[in-house]
């Protein structure tokens, strides 16, 4: 069994076979995952917000605004308590 495995890994590569560069493979994988993610995001936006991306952006901006106002209120309240 060991000899079979050793022969399998010691064989010379066929010069007629294509050679794959690991960087090219990684770039292809990254581009593919990015394209799938973009497609998922676009379809999610289409189905959830019925194509109205403006509503999603308004929701996010409102949430950020409320969080900033709460933080400012809390900081002012803490500053007022300090002697």
Description:
The chain is mainly alpha-helical and 83 residues long. It is built from three helices and no strands. The chain has one domain. The longest helix is centred in the C-terminal third of the chain and has 29 residues. The radius of gyration is 28 Å and the shape is elongated.
Helix content: over 70%
Secondary structural class: mainly alpha
First-last Cα distance: 80 Å
Count of domain modules:
1
Order of helices and strands: HHH
Oligomeric state of this protein: single chain
Radius of gyration: 28 Å
Number of strands: 0
**Gross morphology:** elongated
- SS strand fraction: under 5%
Mean pLDDT: 80
Low-confidence stretches: none
**Total DSSP helices:** 3
Largest sheet: none
List keywords for this structure.
single chain; 83 residues; mainly alpha
Q: What's this entry about, in short?
A:
The chain has 83 residues and is mainly α. It has three helices and no strands.
Secondary-structure blueprint of this entry?
Elements: H1 2-10, H2 22-48, H3 53-81
